[in-house]
Design a protein that fits this description.
Blueprint: E1 6-11, H1 18-34, E2 38-44, H2 50-58, E3 65-66, H3 91-101, E4 105-109, E5 115-120, H4 121-130, H5 136-139, H6 144-150, E6 154-157, E7 169-172, H7 176-182, E8 188-191, H8 195-203, E9 208-212, H9 219-227, E10 231-235, H10 239-245, E11 263-264, H11 269-278, E12 284-287, E13 293-297, E14 309-313, E15 329-335, E16 350-353, H12 359-370, H13 376-389, H14 400-413, H15 417-428, H16 436-440, E17 444-449, E18 452-461, H17 464-474, H18 478-485, E19 489-496, E20 501-507, H19 511-519, E21 528-531, H20 536-555
Parallel strand pairs: 1-2, 1-14, 2-3, 7-8, 8-9, 9-10, 11-12, 14-15, 15-16, 18-19
Antiparallel strand pairs: 4-5, 6-10, 12-13, 17-18, 19-20, 20-21
Helix pairs in contact: 1-12, 1-13, 2-15, 12-13, 13-14, 13-15, 19-20
């Protein structure tokens, strides 16, 4: 994303149909053409159906990103980009880094930038206070390079990459006779600038001698150390300071915490908050989807939380919104449905709701009002959206505005409108290898009326054989939908494009009674056949809501 520009998500309803997906794409394209300040991204709140897949492929339009939850995530807060450090870093350098960067934790990363561990200020303090082990340098496999850095030392004999893997640290403050009883083979011996003790330590096969406050080292000592593979380091510090600092040369990987609580970029902020309240760390590493380290966050980062910004198309009811929309900022709503269970917003929004058959018809009008050209591929998918929602102008929801928009878009896209409609409907009704869930969720919405919550799915069919096949697959599945969705009733409309009628199958204790009151007919073998009813929005939903409300009135 370009620096300084905000990303705004344009998204349709759950279980998206062709209009929901194509309107999001078309409106994003328009907004990106007329805006210099933001980037508008089309998204989908669920898997697309077969019809929509055909439409996008036909006109070469990429499938929008799947976005099923818009709750604030870790990536929406200011991540502190503290560079990962090498596990070989000395404990002292780690402390200095924390001090200079005003931070209490350091992430430790590998060469490929994957997280290896974490070292905290408390870890360093505990290591310094508790470390009474004279063998800690060898246990931690400390390198000569680390000793040189911590002691501000100069290497006189030896290889800086040498690692100490055995022996202990000895302060050789006594006479050679005392050293003989204290020094074992492989020990690191801290010495004053005395020839006799240096000679004794080398002869006792010390792996390293550290000569304090040394200006120079005798040639004989250098020669003997070289012959005995004994490292010589000279330091400007006195014996006391050297003995105090030496344990701070241990690599931080020896004390780092390997069992970490990290956050992914996609971790919800609320989940991160809960974890932070339970764990003592001040900073938590953040990793991306590939496991690569990206930075750290702390509780104070939540003060600059950036809520996701949304434009909703083809819906305005809470039950149809993408999960987490309550935590996002809604900027606009473009829709052609009834105003249902209203979405509350913190600020005024641009709300455009028109009584037409398709949201893409409204977006076509906005293009014209703005004077912007519609690319042929965008025109093609918008035309398909109108044909889908209006059943190729057969639905009672279809208006003259829908028909005029579709014909204009077909001309821009260079397609035959009737051939395109037939091709699209045939692609959408193919049932080969499709499960009941696949068929049902192609176009499914949940509605609320009073205390009742009900779901309505719809499929449009040119072939009666395909419609009968879908009916047989779906009838036993509706009970599962009710349990999964926790709703009172569920209906599925199998609409014949040719016959201009709909077979309705249903589940729920009061579903059959509601349909009887709504349409004043009787079911046959568990199916209500509604002649002339093809529109869910204009014909089916209003009748069902009236029937539910009349039942509630009778009960009162």
């Amino acid at each position: 994303m370009q620096e300084g520009k905000k990303k705004i998500i344009v998204i349709g309803h759950k279980n998206p149909d062709t209009d929901s997906v194509c309107s999001a794409i078309a409106y994003s394209n328009l907004k990106n053409q007329i805006s210099d300040n933001n980037i508008y991204e089309p998204c989908r709140a669920g898997e697309i159906n077969q019809e929509t897949s055909f439409v996008l492929q036909k006109f070469g339009v990429p499938l929008p990103r799947l976005c099923q939850d818009v709750r604030a995530q870790v990536q929406d807060i200011d991540i502190r980009e503290i560079a990962g450090v090498d596990g070989k870093m000395t404990m002292r350098r780690a402390w200095e880094t924390m001090r200079d960067q005003d931070i209490t934790s350091l992430p430790i990363t590998c060469e490929d930038n994957k997280l290896a561990g974490l070292i905290t200020l408390q870890d360093i303090a505990m290591a310094n206070m508790d470390n009474l082990d004279a063998s800690s340098l060898s246990r931690a496999r400390t390198s000569i390079k680390n000793l040189l850095e911590t002691l501000n030392g100069e290497l006189v004999v030896g290889d800086p990459e040498t690692v100490f893997d055995h022996g202990k640290v000895i302060i050789g403050a006594g006479s050679p006779e005392v050293l003989e009883s204290a020094v074992d083979k492989g020990d690191i011996v801290i010495l004053a600038n005395r020839y006799d003790t240096q000679l004794c330590a080398i002869e006792l096969e010390a792996s390293c001698i550290i000569i304090c406050m040394a200006q120079s080292v005798a040639k004989t000592i250098i020669k003997l150390a070289t012959q005995n593979n004994c490292v010589i380091i000279k330091t400007p510090y006195d014996t006391y300071t050297t003995s105090y600092l030496i344990n701070q040369s241990v690599p931080i990987e020896h004390f780092m915490q390997k069992s970490l609580r990290t956050f992914a970029l996609s971790t919800p902020v609320e989940e991160a908050r809960k974890v932070m309240g339970q764990v003592r760390y001040n900073y938590f590493p953040v990793v991306d989807e590939d496991g690569l380290y990206r930075g750290v966050i702390s509780k104070r980062n939540f003060l600059n939380l950036k809520r996701k910004q949304l434009i909703l198309v083809d819906h305005n009811e809470r039950s149809q919104c993408v999960d987490g929309f309550e935590e996002a900022e809604i900027l606009e709503i473009i829709d052609h449905h009834r105003i249902g269970s209203t979405i509350e917003t913190a600020n005024p929004v641009y709300f455009r709701n028109q009584p037409v058959g398709c949201t893409s018809t409204i977006i076509h009008s906005i293009y014209k009002e703005q004077g912007d050209e519609i690319p042929p591929s965008i025109a093609g998918i918008m035309c398909c959206a109108i044909l889908s929602d209006t059943l190729a102008f057969r639905s009672p929801t279809c208006t003259k505005a829908d028909e005029n928009a579709a014909r204009d878009l077909a001309e821009i896209a260079g397609v035959d409108i009737h051939a395109l409609a037939n091709e699209m409907f045939e692609a959408g009704e193919r049932l080969a290898d499709k499960t009941a869930e696949d068929i049902f969720t192609q176009d499914y919405k949940v509605f609320v009326s009073g205390d009742s919550q009900f779901g309505v799915g719809q499929g449009s069919y040119v072939s009666s054989a395909s419609r009968d096949q879908a009916k047989a697959i779906l009838q036993p599945y509706l009970a599962d939908v009710m349990q999964r969705e926790n709703i009172d009733m569920v209906f599925y409309m199998l609409t014949s494009v040719v016959e201009q009628s709909t077979d309705v199958i249903y589940a729920g204790e009061n579903a059959e009674a509601v349909l009887r009151r709504a349409f004043n007919i009787e079911p046959v073998n568990g199916v209500f056949t509604l002649e002339g009813v093809v529109s869910r929005k204009k014909q089916f939903i209003p009748a069902v809501i009236r029937a539910i409300n009349s039942e509630d009135s009778e009960e009162m």
